[in-house]
Amino acid sequence: MKRFKDKVVLVTGAGSGIGRSTALRMDSEGAILIIIDINEDELIKTKSMLKNKESTAKVLDISTIADVKKFFKDLNKLDALINVAGILRFDNSHEVQIDDWEKILNVNLTGTFFMCSYALPLLLKSKGAIVNVSSSAALGSHAWTAAYSASKGGISAFSKTLAVEYGMEGLNVNCVCPASIETPMSTNPNMPKDIDTRLLKKIMPIDGVNRSPDEIASTIAFLASEDAIHINGIDLRVDGGLLT
Ligand SMILES: NC(=O)c1ccc[n+]([C@@H]2O[C@H](COP(=O)([O-])OP(=O)(O)OC[C@H]3O[C@@H](n4cnc5c(N)ncnc54)[C@H](O)[C@@H]3O)[C@@H](O)[C@H]2O)c1
Predict the structure, then answer these.
(1) Which atom of ligand 1 is nearest to the CA of 64?
(2) How many angstroms is it from 84 CA to the middle of ligand 1?
(3) What is the pLDDT of residue 137?
(4) Tens of pLDDT along 128-163?
(5) How many Cα atoms are found within 13 Å in the side-chain-facing hemisphere of 29?
(6) Which domains does the chain have, with CATH numbers?
(7) Active site residue 166
(8) Dmax over Cα atoms in the chain, in whole Å?
(9) CA atoms within 13 A on the CB side of 185
(10) Whose alpha carbon is nearest atom 40 of ligand 1?
(11) What residues pair up with 236 in beta bridges, in sequence order?
(12) How far apart are the first and last CA of the chain?
């Protein structure tokens, strides 16, 4: 399947986990990738795994507007934007520090907004697609993630605004809402002390199995492709039935 042959696809957070798997999936489907991450060493590793030698890698902090603006100034074609970059930390909600709240909102929500906003002129030209990685936390399932859940709820909400506002011009904007995916973000999470462990049951898939980031990459590839032409403005749960 080569759904992205000659298509330019930008993936943020491509240095790890879901972003890396998505880049590899898009590469296997023929995309010319632009991969972005703040972590240079890991980004270079992902780049070295790509078969398409036209693909490029760029170290970029998606939450720094001046850098995002400068990056898009030099770009003249884009068919799909995949916003995967994100950060997470766990705190009891009454103990969240304002610096942590702002950092999580800045990267996850505002960073995703910056990327969408500057990519829009190119995506309207190509009648392309945006896939934003939200979370089951946006839809309501997680304790100890006040800032993260708020940021993901924001992503899901503003993605629908984009879908409605630009849908008539041929743009599709959808969210994937994963849960229980094995990546560096979810392995050995730093939980607050003295948590009520009964709440842990609320973040388990129906079959209790955590899955590989490849399961999210395949969903992202579907939503970014022509196969999903009639899907616009949804939150697609890929959560093992967690919220069923
Ligand atoms: N793993 C899960 O179970 C799960 C569940 C729901 C949602 N998600 C979401 O999926 C996305 C990817 O998560 P993951 O599990 O692969 O995590 P990860 O930590 O493995 O990867 C996140 C990547 O984003 C990059 N990044 C962080 N801040 C950045 C910034 N300011 N600019 C550019 N890049 C930045 C990191 O360097 C890292 O490479 C995140 O948005 C996360 O919230 C993950």
Answers:
(1) 31
(2) 6
(3) 97
(4) 999 999 999 999 879 999 999 999 999 999 999 999
(5) 21
(6) 8-238 (3.40.50.720)
(7) no
(8) 52
(9) 22
(10) 86
(11) 176
(12) 31
